[in-house]
Amino acid sequence: MRTITNVSRRGFLRQSFGAGAFVLGARMLPIPAAAALEAAVFRPNVFVGIKSDGTVLIVAHRSEMGTSSRTSVPLILADEMEADWKRVKIEQAIGDPKYGDQDTDGSHSVRSFFPVMQECGASARTMLVEAAAKEWGVPASECKASLHQVVHTPTGKKLDYGALAASAAKLPVPDKSQLVFKKKSEYRYIGKDFPIYDLADITHGKAIFGMDAKVDGMVYASIEHSPVLGGRIKSVDNKEALAVRGVSQTVVLPDFKPPHAFQALGGVAVIADNTWAAFQGRKKLKVAWDPGDNATYTSSEYKKQLQTTARQPGKVVRNVGDVDQAFASASKTLEAEYYVPLLAHAAMEPEVAVADVRNGKCTVWAPVQNPQAVQDTVAAAIGIDKKDVICNVTLLGGGFGRKSKPDFCAEAAILSKQIGKPVKVVWTREDDIRFDYFHTVDAMYLKAGLDSHGKPSAWLQRTVFPSIDSTFALGITHGGAGELGMGFTDMPFDIPNLRAENGEAVNHVRIGWMRSVANIYHAFAICSFADECAHAAGRDPKDYLLDLIGRPRNIDLKAQGVDYPNMGPIETYPVDTGRLRNVIEIAAGKSGWGKRTLPKGHALGIAAHRSFLSYIATVVEVAVTPDGKISIPRVDTVVDAGMIVNPDRVRSQFEGAAVFGASLTLMGEITATAGKIDQSNYHNYPVARIHEAPYETRVHIVETDAPPAGVGEPGVPPFAPALCNAIFAATGKRIRELPIGKQKLV
Amino acid sequence: MITLKINGATRQFDGDPDMPLLWYLRDVAGLTGSKFGCGMGLCGACTVHQDGVAIRSCVTPVRAAAGREITTIEGLGEHPLQQAWAALNVAQCGYCQVGQIMQAASLLKTKPKPTDKDIDDAMAGNICRCGTYQRIRAAIKSAAKEQA
Question: What ipTM was reported for this prediction?
Fold first, then answer.
C-alpha cells in the first residue's frame, strides 16, 4: 500500500472516467478532478497535471473536514515540483482506488502521503527540466527548476512550466530510483504557514458543502428511523404526511441485516420538493415500531454492568512481572474507578447526500471522509458494481469520524433507484444525534501499589467498553487490538509489575470512531490516576509523571507479548519515552509550571499522551469560582508530531482539540432509555461555546526531523485529564467521571 | 403571496408562509451561504440580518420576514471581518463561519469596539465544533481596529 501508479500517458488516457456520469449538469458543484485533469496537456501521474497556460492542477484525494488536508497534502507536491502555489488549482478526487487510501481518518493524510506527494512532484519536475534541456540542446544537469520555471543556469535562459508542458508530456515518466528529491533546506512551502485553499470561498459563503449540493430535477428526503437500533416497522400511516404541501410520496426503506456496518438503517422516507416540506411531512408520519432486542438498553443500568465487570478480572492483554505479589508487599495501595459516557460527534453539518441512480450507475455528491467506502456501501445497497458508483466529495462541515460511515449515502442511493430521480437525503440535527455511530462508553478500574518512596511497584488497569468491531461483526464482546492499543496496552509507565485487562461488554447501539477514539477514555483514566498517585506520594505531579515514565527508551511491547498494531511501522515510529518526556518538560517550561503566580481559585494540571504516533503534553489552567463555576483561561500544548508541513494548520488543530476536549470533559453525554437516545440537539447535547471554551490555547511545536505523525486527533486525549488534574489542584475534588457538568465542585 | 427583500432585491414567494427563511433562501432562492445546523436557533449557522440585526433564519418563518430588509452573506459586500478572518486563518471546516461573520457584523454595528464580554455575549449563540473561537475573537477585535 501507499504506492502510486506512475501511469504512462497512454495508460492514463486509456482509463475511463465514466464521462456519462457527469452529464447531469451538477449545478453548484465543482467538476470532478479526473475530468478537470483531462484538460491538462501534461499528466505524469494521477495527482498532477499542467495546462498549457501553466496552471498546475493538483488532485486532493483526501477529504477536507477542517484539518487542511486539501491544502497541506497538495502543498507537499507543489513544493517538490517547484510549482508556484499562486498558479496551483486544487481538484478534488472522486473515490477511486487508483489514488490509494482515501479514508481521511486516523490522522494520517500527511504521514502516509508525504512520500507519495514528493514522488509525484519530483517526477513532474524532472520531466519539465528534461523537456527544457531538450529544447535548448543542453545537458539537463545545467538546468534547474525554480518557481514554475526551468532555468538554464549558465545562460540564465528561462522557460515557464506552461510552455514546457506539451514537450514534457512526450517524455517517459522517470523511474522512482532516478528521482532526486529536494533537501529540507530547499523547501519553499513545507514548514511555513499557509492559509487553506478554500478560505475566501468560506468567508463569502461560496464554498460548497454537502448540504449545498444541488442537481437538476432533484427531490428532497427526510427519513424516520427506528428509535431503537434494529427496530422493525409494524405499521405506517402516511395520510397526513402526503397532505403536506410539497410532499409527493413516502418510501419504506429495507431493514438492515446485522451486522449493520455502514448499511442504511431502514425506516420511512418522506419525499418532497424542498427540505422543509420533507421535514414537515415526516412529522406527520405515524409509524408504529417493534423495538426489538435493544429496547433492553438503558444507560444507567448498563453503566452499573460495565462497572461491575471492571471490578473483576478480565482478559489479560499485557502482563509484566507479578502484580499480585507486588500488591501484597506494597506499603500503600490506591484504587480508583473512572467512567466516560457515550459521546456524539455533532459536526455542524448534519449528514446529507445527493444520489442519482440511472442507467445502472450511481453518482453521489456528499461530504464524506471515505469516498471508496461510499462506492462499496452504495454498490451493495443497490446491487451494482463498485466501479459504477461515482462518489464526488464536497467540503465537509466537520467530520470527526462520523462522515467516514456512509450510511446516509446508501439511503440516498436506495431512494433514487426507487424513485427514478436524483434524491437529496437531509438529516436533521435530531437524526444526527440519535443515529450517530457513538463514541463508546467505557468503565475503567485502576489500582496501584506504592513503595516506601511513593513510586508504584505494581499497577493494575482494566478497561471495559463495547468494541467498535461489534459494528462490523456479530458476537464481539472484547476490545480490538487497535482500540486497546490506543493508550491502554501501550501505557508508557516504567513499572516492574504491571497488568492490563479488558472485560466483556455487549453492544446495543451503533458505535464508531470519534476524534482520537479509545485514547479519550484511556488517557483520561491513566493520566488522572497518575496524578492521584503523585498526590498520594506527596510529589509534584509533573516530576512524578516523569519518574513514572522513567528513562528515555523505546518500549518493546512485542517482547511483552502485546498485540500492538501501532499506527505505522514500529521501526519508524517506536514508542519513544524520550520524546514523551521532552514534551512534558517543554510544557512545564512554557506554562510556567511551579513558577507562574496564579490568581486565587486558579490552578494548573498536566497530562501527556502518545497517540497517532505523536507525543503531546498539555497543561490546563483552570479557574474555579467560590460557587464552583469553571473557566479555562489558558492551555499550553506541546506537540511533537514529527516533521510539520503547515505549522499554522497544526496550531489550529490543537487549538480546536482543546475546545473539543473541553466539550467532552465539561458537558458531553449521550444516554439511552429503553434503547432510545435521550438527547436530540445542542440544547441537551451541548458542545462548548465561545465563553465556555479555553480563552487561549498556546501551541508549541517541537522542531524535529522525525517522520511526520498525526495531527488532527492527538490533541484531544490529554485535555480531559489535564483539566481534571487542574480542578483537583484548585479544589481538592477528584473528577473520575465525565462530564463534569452535573457534579458539584465545591 | 409574500414579498421579500433579500440583498436589495424584491422577490415574491407563494409557498408555505411558515417555511423558515433559511429553507426559502437555500432551496428556493438558491442562496446557500447560510447553513442549516440545528433548526432550533441553537447554533447560529443560519444567521442572517433582518433590518441590520442578526437573526436565526432557521426559526424565522418567511411570513415574519415579509417587508423587512434581509441581508445574507451573499449581500454583505466585502466586509472588514472577512479580511480579518482571512488574515488570521480563522476557518477550519468553515461550515459555521458564515453565521459567525454575520453575527459579528451585527455586533460591530452596535459595538464598534467590543470588549471580551461583549464578544462572549454576542457570539455565545454561534457554535463552532472545530473550535475556532480563539481566532474568531481575535478577528473581531482586529476588524474593529480596522474600522476605527
Answer: 0.98
